[in-house]
Amino acid sequence: MALRTQFQNSSDIGVFAKLTNSYCLVPIAECEAFYSVFEGELADVIKVIHTTVGGCRILGRLCVGNKNGLLLPNSTTDKELQHLRNSLPSSVKIARVEERLSALGNVIACNDYVALVHPDLDRETEEVLADTLGVEVFRQTLAGQVLVGSYCSLTNQGGIVHPKTPIEDQDELSSLLQIPLVAGTVNRGSDNVGAGMVVNDWIAFCGQDTTATEISLIESIFKLTDNKGPSTITQMRSVLVESMVA
């Protein structure tokens, strides 16, 4: 199931929230409608944690995580770090890294097994990432874009990448990551897929502007419905391509 929501009139909900298979992070702010959507769907399954990172609400762009761990930028305060340690499941590792590319959510995309990272990410950060999140790391670009975290969204079931990613690259990446991939958009044609949605293995939250066609593609590639046929993905891909060309 994929649900639409927005954060204070912004459809870029992936900028503000972080969703994994073992926890969900949402910013501290006056936005009850936003919180109620997440807590209504997730509270019985995983913990929804209200926090900030470095005093900022753009959690989805500043940190990166999966069911195994959470990686935070150096701007994270000791108080925020302690709050997260106290709130997250005990099985989740937490690390804070000194990284020049400090918007970690923009430069890293991952699921529970693999991570795509910005080609210029520090080697030390790569090692901490692999250890904390328990992932195999690949340096990659998407359609010539180095901000892989902004332009794709991955789960253990599948992934959506930048709409201009060539089919050959999609196939190569799919083989590398061992999950099906499709080029797509959110929020009525936005290529910032990672910024426009958050998703785990059983539910997705998309920006309010996301169209029915985009929702169908999301539910299909991430296997969030019973309709899992590859024909659906092919069909949706052609509809998206046609709408982009039109």
Describe what this molecule looks like in 3D.
The chain has 246 residues and is α/β, with parallel strands linked by helices. The protein is 35% helix and 22% strand. The strands form five sheets. A three-stranded mixed beta sheet has the order 1-15-14. A three-stranded mixed beta sheet has the order 2-3-4, with helices on both faces. Strands 5-6-7 form a three-stranded mixed beta sheet, sandwiched between helices. It starts with a strand and ends with a helix. About 3% of the residues have low confidence.
Summarize this structure as a short list of keywords or feature phrases:
single chain, 246 residues, alpha/beta, 3-stranded mixed sheet
Q: What is the rounded Rg?
A: 17 Å
How does the helix and strand content classify structurally?
alpha/beta
* Proportion of helical residues: 25-40%
**DSSP strand tally:** 15
Number of helices: 10
Q: Main β-sheet: number of strands, strand sense, barrel status?
A: 3 strands, mixed
* Strand arrangement in the largest pleated sheet: 1-15-14
